[in-house]
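Record type: monomer structure entry
Structure origin: computed from sequence
Chain ID: A
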Amino acid sequence: MPVISFAQNAKSTLTIEKIMQGTGFTGTSPSEISWSEDSRLIYFKWNPEKARTDSLYRVTAAGENIKKLTRQEAEALPTQAGVYNRAYTLKVYEKRGDIYLYNRKTNQSWPLTKTLEAETNPVFSGDEQQIIFTQNSNLFALHLGSGQLTQLTNFLPGAKKDQTKNDQEKWLQQQQLALFDIVKKRHSEEQASKLENKKFKKTQPKEIYTGEKTVENAVLSPDGNFVTYRVVAPSNNAKKTIVPNYVTASGFTEDIPSRTKVGAPLAASEMGLYDIARDTTYQILFKDIKGITEQPEFLKDKKKTAAPRPVAFYGPFWSDNGKNAVLVLRSQDNKDRWLVQFNPTTRALKVLDRQHDEAWINGPGIDYEAGDLGWLQDNETLWFQSEETGYSHLYTINTRTNQKKQITKGKYEVSGVRLSRDKNFWYFQANKVHPGEQHFYRLSVRGGEPLQLTTGVGGHEVTLSPDEKNLAIRYSTTNKPWELFVMPNRAGVKPRQVTNSLTPEFKAYAWREPEVTSFKARDGAEVFARIYRPTNAVANGPAVVFVHGAGYLQNAHKWWSYYYREYMFHNFLVDQGYTVMDIDYRGSAGYGRDVRTGIYQFMGGKDLTDQVDGAAYLVQKYQVNPKKIGIYGGSYGGFITLMALFTQPDVFAAGAALRSVTDWAHYNHEYTANILNEPFTDSTAYVKSSPIYHAAGLKGALLMCHGLVDTNVHFQDIIRLTQRLIELKKENWELAVYPVENHAFTEPSSWTDEYKRIFKLFEANLK
């Protein structure tokens, strides 16, 4: 991959005002890369004109003739989502609530439905003669030849009305029939009509009443004989928070409905099966799945009843020949994930693979739902990803023989796996060369060594053309933002650069390439970091440690940072004589299971000591002043900043905590319960991990910044901590409020104000 080059003449002066204009200063990189269905064109969002919003552009597969599409041209394109038939000649997709069919040979699309109701999730039937789709939770079949529309399911809310008469009602009816001939005649006619209707109803789908529950994920089996579906009971007792919005067009305070808090009652779900031929429904029970009654280690001393744990299911995922189906089951506590073979005829379940983690299940290609998986050409071998070895890798398992095989191996992670159309190769991303590099690989399904197709140092986001002959690549390095490149799908070819997005203002500054290095933490773990260092650094100078957000995110890598404003701010700080360190602490992505789960039951433990050990590394290797080290970050980074100032007050002289979690018992369930379990089942973990309990330790100078309409980390979080600091009689803190900002700031004026305050904090306390 060639280096993205631009002229660097006299070095311009950075200002916080420039940096915080965001893409208005850097230029807008191409995004949302996709291919035309015939593989001749590449589409992407771009904004070289600094317009109000990005527009859709196209370029040829050779990287020539960039053109901006009109709104009408963009609207006429098929969506990238959708499902092809097995021959890849037809594609069905949903667009704005209607179903469309695309013909690859003629390169034309046309609507199959035009209704006020939304039709979603279109797929081909097993014989590919019909389009199966969902409307109002029910399945419908549209025959491609005749155009006949058939309703396949009839899910109904509420309960079936009880027609049974009690003894009194029966006696009164018999009396009426005996006394009045007209009543007897009409009753007889009514019964005859009901009998005729009953005969007709036998051809209609069964009425399936769901009470207060809702139906999701209805799937027709390839043979058309069964429908599987998910029934979800509402969590009526889950109280949600309200976020007040003060700066509104109406002039009145308006409430923004927001999320629940960790530990709130969760929605329960179950799996249903509708046997169409027998006109019968069944509930599929998972109580006998191996390990489903095993209690997590943290609960075993609490003597809880070993009842089956609640699970969520995903799928079924059918083989191309329609003979094999697999479900993905995940325990509600997210400590187990099962791959289960499912036979709808016998309703039998067979566990193919179980991944268990006493912390929580996640990782590239695994995630929090079904994850990436599929069938090989033999229709009986399933491929999937697992962290069984400590890193997310590619596996196969044969559903007939139960033979399991690890395909990729090593201390690296595989992500974005997809099978080629002929099912002879896998394509995937991996950080095999270095934890901080992402490359694109091809691997034969017969095994062997993955073939690396990209070469340049940095990050590669690859979109393979439908005919699999070319690659569209978003490529960047640490100091140069993403640009679009194209190359043939083979190794050793020099990519061609398509876009040039950078502004003259951005190119006028000589942006530093931070050193990506690593150091040993106190427990011997290798921790990766970026170092920004002044060219003529002096001993005993000040330093700043930046803490990335999200927890599970990677930032000490060799491509353009998600935190690009912070990257530019770090260059600005270096211009002022600071050394800056940016650490991929425990909990970060890109380094395998042990790093990912290193924060289990204690956020503010290893993730914080990694910052402390990083500060010691700065002192030892770069001779910074141990009394002049600051720390800052947003969201999870803000949380770590608070924990640093409250529990390590002699290490960090000042800190800026932005949009910070201050008490994990007030954050959401989906994220927090994985790491700390629930407040009422693992209260010690919450007390250890929540800054509000440790605020008495504050010594250094603290700046807190928070958006007033933050619907992720609520403003209530920082207000509760503020009251705690007041009651503790702490004085060396301040709070900056941003009335129109959510969790992610959008206004350059807010960004500028925030970072001017951060710089002022560091200047006052670290120099």
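Annotation 1: The longest strand covers residues 624-634.
Annotation 2: The chain is about 20% helix and 35% strand.
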